[in-house]
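ok so for the tutorial part 2 we go from a plain amino acid sequence to predicted structure tokens. step 1 is just haveing the sequence, like this:
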Amino acid sequence: MAPSAEVWAALSPAQRAAVVAALPGEVTYDEMAMPEGEIHFWAKVGALTALRGYFARQKRRVYLASELPIYYPGEPRFAPDLIAVLDSNDARRSKWVVSDEGKGLDWVLEVHVGGDRKKDAELNVARYARLGIPEYFLYDGARNRLSAYRLASSEATSYTPILPNLGLYESRVLGLDVQVEQDRLRFYVGTALLLESEEFTARVQALADDRLRRAEEAERLREEEARLRAEAEQRREEEARLRAEAEQRREEAEQRRAEAEQRSEKAEQEVARLLAELERLKR
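step 2 — the prediction. this is what the tokens look like for a chain of 283 residues:
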């Protein structure tokens, strides 16, 4: 455990740094709960990724961690399934030492699937309230049920249950609503669901696939448009060629008509000459 507040206050900065460095960044097998399977694992991961993505997009300074050793002054260490500390750097840590960080946890989530339910449902309810953690959420994965607790004031040492509103439990610390939905723990901001990492990745992939499909469709339409333009240009050229040929045929026909008229006129003149010659001979 970490030193008491009184002992910490008496230490020099160098001594405090040495104490923090000496505190282990892991818990022992005796302190760890037995593995509780995929339901336990994915409930933690899903909640962590949904919250991490949301606060990152909000550009809000919130430290989130899973199974991190926590050291309150003079208290045995513990490692909750998920913690949130507001207005704190989201830098990687191997432990959270309250005296060194300057503040305790703001929000804790425990996921229970198997083993001793009393630890999460009773002992932690009393312990976290005594430590002054403003909100504690307990997801019972085996029963697919959520319980939530809040300190009514900064002076309170016991929790008041948070009552659900249409299945939603309000977290004033996170500024979100929480509920169990189809065997999963879900977070909402207003009516908008916070996506877990795999869902967010799938949504991004779907958008990328849709964008690619639209780009391919646009390219196909551009190629089709180019083909139609080429065909139209080819038709215009063919029409121009046919008009030129028709004009040429018209000119040739006109020339043949003129030549025929000339031949006819010459023939008429020759006939007239011959008739005149014949008349002369008759005289």
